[in-house]
Write a structure and sequence with these properties.
Blueprint: no helix or strand
Length: about 170
């Protein structure tokens, strides 16, 4: 049992366990060749460099920004409390659910069908490149202009005057 300070000027090699009951202070690098087990918290005042995989078994809390230089893979649910900003495209492989408003400030392209469960409001012009099928009533509030033929297969009811400026053909 040593009751005072031990000063060693050269290299020291221990062949068994080193058990220290008080605080330890190292004034230079600590190199460990085998597995290291820490039984409590770790605090690092400077930069921490891990040259291999970091595996965390419990929760991880980052108190500031996180920058990831390579691809990131999340194997379970990602929950974000604040605003999320993506500087490039978002590629979703499965079903996407939005529980509130989707606001798009740029051009939007839908490569397949789109189903709207409620009302759809278009505040600007609507251009449709292919045939359109309306499965219910079409109610137009303003003037309507058709650039080609109007074919009606059922009965037609007009509630006001019919004004025709060109040739008209009626047959029964």
């Amino acid at each position: 049992s040593l009751q005072s300070t031990l000063d060693v000027a050269g290299a020291t090699s221990l062949s068994s366990t080193l058990d220290v009951s008080g605080a330890s202070s190292l004034k230079s690098t600590l190199g460990v060749d085998g597995t290291t087990t820490l039984g409590s918290s770790v605090t690092a005042a400077g930069h921490v460099l891990l040259q291999s995989t970091l595996q965390v078994v419990g929760s991880t809390w980052l108190r500031s920004e996180a920058t990831v230089a390579g691809a990131t893979q999340l194997l379970s649910t990602a929950s974000v409390q604040g605003k999320t900003m993506l500087a490039s495209e978002l590629d979703v492989q499965g079903h996407a659910m939005l529980h509130s408003t989707l606001s798009v400030s740029g051009w939007t392209y839908l490569a397949s069908e789109a189903t709207v469960g409620g009302r759809a409001w278009v505040k600007g012009a609507l251009t449709v490149g292919g045939a359109s099928s309306l499965r219910s009533t079409l109610d137009v509030v303003g003037a309507t202009s058709l650039s080609s033929t109007l074919d009606v297969s059922g009965a037609t009811s007009l509630s006001s005057t019919l004004d025709v400026s060109g040739a008209t053909s009626l047959s029964s």
